[in-house]
Automatic annotation (TrEMBL):
Protein's name according to its UniProt entry: ATP-binding cassette domain-containing protein
Compartment(s) of residence: Cell membrane
Domain ABC transporter, first and last residues per copy: 6-239
Lineage of source species: Bacteria, Bacillati, Bacillota, Bacilli, Bacillales
GO molecular function, one term: ATP binding
Length: 324
């Protein structure tokens, strides 16, 4: 236990409007000082979960404890220990960056000199010292995100919630946000709960990842645990047409025991434990059946592969279309 922990049990949220079940019986915990990523496509239920965890909306069912307090019965206690940066920033375009920060310090009860000191410190952390006295309305998207991050850090929160903090940013701005977050997590021990659609972001930053799809957690683990779930290697085969792909898949499944193969456009992806050894079998089968393959490679899986595999299995189980 500790102020930097999150415990979520059987959390569900149904929006009456449209009768949308946005979150379905979700259970997970985040440890003190952990960097936790909630990874999922558009509409998966990430923002809804963040809004419940940060006391902004109520759950339909389940229990949520953040910083050792129940979000329903003790929302004010929870808010004392958290920082929240949502997708829409709460920045007033007519104020300067410095004014925004001073205002935020005031909200948290800092006196004038404390507020000035903390503001200067935060401007330096997010590298906005030079732009501090310009109005926020003229800031670039990246600068606005950095200011937003600084605003969430004013009260030195034990837990920081970030809802897609780098969506829409260019690679260099994304990288600098990553660096601040890593520093904050490593040096200050801040627990970070981050939602993202970017696999690379979760892979680079997170100690642990939960993959959410259609309101359900479909996988959870460290980046390497998730990668090893689907085999150590991938054999990727490219064919000239989708008919060839379908024919090759059926043939390989018939000839090779327990072949785990997915279709993706003109490609077949085969999940295997030992890629180099299995490659020989694959070539032998394709050759024996006169199936022409345009290219064939052995690679290690990325989180992208895991994501596609898991979410397509989830869709198949529900009888929806496969990604193939
Ligand atoms: N206030 C609301 N009223 C009705 N439905 C809602 C509301 N907010 C979200 N939803 C629905 O709940 C589902 C989950 O939405 P949510 O915003 O949590 O997804 P997300 O994973 O954050 O997506 P994105 O990456 O696009 O932000 C979606 O189907 C969405 O349309």
């Amino acid at each position: 236990m500790g102020k930097g922990t999150i415990h979520v049990k059987q959390l569900s949220k149904t929006f009456k409007k449209g009768n949308v079940q946005a979150v379905k019986d979700v259970t997970f915990s985040v440890r003190e000082g952990e960097f936790f990523a909630f990874l999922g496509p558009n509409g998966a239920g990430k923002s809804t979960t963040v809004q419940i965890l940060t006391t902004l909306i109520n759950a339909t069912a389940g229990t949520v404890e953040v910083a050792e307090h129940d979000v329903i019965s003790k929302p004010h206690e929870v808010r004392k220990h958290i920082g929240v940066a949502l997708q829409e920033t709460g920045i007033d375009p007519s104020l300067t960056g410095r004014e925004m920060l001073l205002l935020q310090c005031g909200i948290f009860g800092f006196n004038k000199s404390e507020a000035q000191e903390r503001t200067q410190e935060l401007l330096e952390i997010v590298q906005l010292t030079e732009a501090a006295d310009r109005i926020c309305g003229n800031y670039s998207g990246g600068m606005r995100r950095r200011l937003d991050l600084a605003l969430t850090l004013v009260n030195r929160p034990k837990i920081l919630f970030l809802d897609e903090p780098t969506t829409g940013l260019d690679p260099s701005n994304r990288k600098s946000i990553w660096e601040y977050l890593e520093r904050l997590n490593k040096e200050e021990g801040t627990t970070i709960f981050l939602t993202t659609q970017y696999l690379e972001e979760a892979d680079v930053l997170a100690d642990r990842i939960a993959i959410i799809d259609d309101g359900l957690i479909v996988a959870e683990g460290t980046p390497s645990e998730l990668k090893s779930q689907i085999g150590n290697d991938l054999i990727t085969m490219v064919f000239a047409s989708t008919e060839e792909v379908t024919h090759a898949k059926a043939t390989l499944e018939q000839e090779l025991d327990e072949a785990d193969i997915a279709e993706r456009e003109e490609q077949l992806i085969m999940y295997v434990q030992d890629g180099t050894k299995r490659l020989m079998d694959v070539i032998r089968v394709l050759d024996a059946h006169d199936i022409l393959v345009q290219s064939i490679n052995v690679d290690s899986p990325t989180l992208d592969d895991i994501f596609l595999k898991i979410t397509s299995e989830n869709a198949t189980q529900k009888g929806e279309v496969n990604y193939g």
